[in-house]
Amino acid sequence: MAAIAFFDADDTLLKGSSGVMLAKLLLIQKGERIEPKYAWELLKIYFQSKVKAVKYDSIVEYGLGRFDGRSVAELDDVCRECFDLYMAKSIYRGGYKEIRRHQQRGNRAVLLTASIKPLMNILGEYLGMDDVIATEPVVEDGFMTDNVEKPFCYGDGKRILAQEYADRSGVLLKDCYFYSDSISDLPLLEAVGNPVATNPDRVLFATALLRNWRIAWFNRVLPVKSGVRL
Q: Is residue 139 part of a domain?
């Protein structure tokens, strides 16, 4: 039975944060105004999450408030524009090679990320991923809400979603791979048999050294006109 190689997105396959790229598009390219109170609340939630005073999904749901009430079609257009403008030129060459290497060996390559799925579907298609697991915004009658499907694709939620996906595929997690940059992904890194600390943060780097995990560093990005775009 073929294994599954799960890949995180931000700072693993992508140089930078897809959420920051989306914010740059809205605020800089489209010139959308952001109310000082909204910016302050989002910043406060972010720093609270760093000291475990608030769940990370609160950040995403509060951030999705920017799209509350907009149509799915409008969000899809914004995501496509974000990808074309920022993300397409921020994909690590090393990450792309790892995806191809796994697929050539008969393994499935699956994007597994806390970023929103409408945006990650575009990245997954571009890279030829076999599947995408990401944060699913709740849609009502074709319009966005500021809620997300649970479990949230972060921390132990990633482990749960990966386990469910592996079970459906008839694969054991101990036979799978997971590429991630963040110690927040420790639950799944510990669950798979082949963890890969990729451009790891300081805590994950130390953890990987202590546990003799593979460490991968990606630096160069793919040229946009490299022939990999679908």
A: yes
C-beta separation of 137 from 67 below 8 A: yes
Residue 219's identity, in one-letter code, is: N
What is the extent of the structural domain holding 51? 4-216
Q: Tell me the C-alpha distance between 8 and 184, whole Å.
A: 11
Q: Is residue 226 part of a domain?
A: no
**Residue pLDDT, tens place only, 61-113:** 555 666 777 888 988 998 999 999 999 999 999 999 999 999 999 999 999 99
Q: Rounded to an integer, what distance in angstroms lies between the CA atom of residue 182 and that of residue 128? A: 24
For 78-110, give one letter per residue: b (16+ CB within 10 A) or e: bbeebbeebbbebbbebbbebbeebbeeebbbb
Before 151, cis peptide (omega within 30)? yes
Here the tokens at position 179 are 């590429």
Q: Mind giving me the DSSP string for 119-174?
A: HHHHHHHHHT-SEEEEE-EEEETTEEEEEE-SS-SSTHHHHHHHHHHHHHHT--GG
- The CATH number given to whatever domain includes residue 191 is 3.40.50.1000
How many domains does one find in the chain?
A: 1
- To the nearest 5 percent, what fractions of the chain are helix, strand and coil? 50, 20, 30
Find where tokens 């699913």 sit.
Answer: 136
> What whole-number percentage of the chain has pLDDT above 90?
59
User: CA–CA separation, 20 vs 229, rounded Å?
Assistant: 22
